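Shall we go through a protein fold together, starting from nothing but its sequence? Label the sequence line and the structure token line clearly, so we can match residues to local backbone shapes. Would you write everything just below, so we can both look at the same thing?
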Amino acid sequence: MLNIRTYAFGIKEVWEIDESKHKPGAVLHTIGWPLDQKTYGGSFLYHMKDRQVSIGLVVALNYHNPYLNPYEEFQKFKHHPAIRPLLEGGTVIQYGARTLNEGGIQSIQYPVFPGGAIIGCSAGFLNVPKIKGTHTAMKSGMLAAEAAFGSLREGTSLKSYWETLGSSWIWDELHRARNYRPAFEYGVIPGLAICALERYILKGRSPFTLKHGKPDHEATNAARLHSPIEYPKPDGVFSFDVPTSLHRSNTNHDHDQPAHLRL
């Protein structure tokens, strides 16, 4: 039986840092702080070429505290004593954000519709423990293309895409990774314990499949059950306000465009 979908919000900045601090190929992943023990999420920091680093924070959208602000959590994260020295003297080049479909194999819906098919991360093929979805996106695109070619040649439907997905390595990989994300429904520490069991002992061959619980929006509590979170004001050096980051994202649209939303 298919489960509900669950999502996360990812925020990223690209910095150009001092050459003496740059280590091409170095990777850093963290979990927890600045998030609380009941909120799933973590950071990434990748040293790229040309003195650039990609740094970001991913926050699951089933957080309990309605006052939690993923953007402000990321700004706070950059002030950590293990991160701030790396960025000191550097310059922000670009900002971006996106939603991640983290449901995994439990949440994949039938991806074929009349005249088309859903592929990649839109279909839910992200491998959460690997924090990677480009390989499954490319493979699913290849399978969809083969199904489309067969459909045009033989006049059949695209349902063969769904059939070949189930027999491909995509399905096998997502099945072995299925319990990592829902493990954190029980909190960060229990989630880490379950993931260790999955990774080092069971190796994805668990006799059980964990569920995601409730939809993300239902997981958020009433405001009266929590206290507002006081986030520090941006200093303009390591942390920035939303308009500044929005400008760096190069997002642009026609301000005089008629509203397309109809209520």
